[in-house]
Amino acid sequence: MSRFLRGISLFLFPVMLALPGQAQSGEAPDRTVSVGGTATVTATPDQATVRFGIVSEAETAESARQQNAEAAKAAMNAVRDMNVPESKMRMESLRLQPQREYNPETETREQTGYQAAREVVVELSDLEQLPRLIATVVQRGANRLEGISYGLSDRTAKRNDALRQAVTSAHEKARLMATALDAQLGTVREISEQDFGYDRPQPGLQRAFAKSAESDAAPEPDAYAAGEIEISAQVQVVFDLATGQ
Hints:
By secondary structure, the chain is α+β, with helices and mostly antiparallel strands. It has 5 helices and 8 strands, in the order H-E-E-H-E-E-E-H-E-H-E-H-E.
């Protein structure tokens, strides 16, 4: 064999040896299925956070501040009279700003006085006291309801329940998809939590509070019905897939 042909043979031999390795590296990638699971659980709330607004208006800043301070102090004392712990109530910072109205004669906004505003926040663990709390604070200083939210003293347990149900939902969905593909569901490759729960708002309560402020009486007890709190969970799971037997 000539030297030239021997050189070609020596070159081709390692190339042929490399082909099996290239074939192995060119194997089809692992098959996976990615699914999402969601779940929602409901629970009856056992606590509430109420934000009362106290707004005062006067010709001078000092007068507005003094009126607001007196109303806020009276509101806090009303809460204390209901034996609410000091740690469950707080008075937030005062906001003082000038009031202006448009004067069509001068075509300018002219200052007419000052407004002082602050909030009193109360955390209530006995919802049966809620109607009385609002009636008392209304009669003794507050003139707005800035917000009310219901909650759970043990929210973690319900959230974990929703999370477990979301994972179960994802698993069942992945198994169904694998069966449709004539494949077997393998182990979990990835799992992540996407989102979880919220407290359902109570839009009708502000209207009930406004009516009570005008009449110095508490709204009907039904106005405070908290309903159910919805706690949601969402997960994303990636499973391996194996060819069915």
